[in-house]
Amino acid sequence: MRFFKKTIFWVIILAAIGGSFYIFDRKMEDKKAQEELQRRLFLFRPSDVVSFTIKRRGEDVVKQARRTEDGWVVTAPVEAAGDGEEIEAFLRNLVDARMDAVLFDEAPAEKLEEMGLADPYLVVELRTDSFTRTVRFGDKGPTHNVAFAMIEGDPRVLRIHSDIMTDSDLDLYDLRDKSIVRFEPTRVKSFDVRWRDGTRVFVEHPKEGVWNALELPEGRTDFVKVMELLVQLKKGKVKAFVDEAPEDPAAYGMDDPRVRIVFHDEHGVRHTLEIGARDKVNRGYYARRGGEQAVFSVEEVLYNAIPRKVTDLEVKDDEES
Question: What is the rounded distance in angstroms from the CA atom of residue 37 to the CA atom of residue 59?
Answer without folding.
Answer: 34
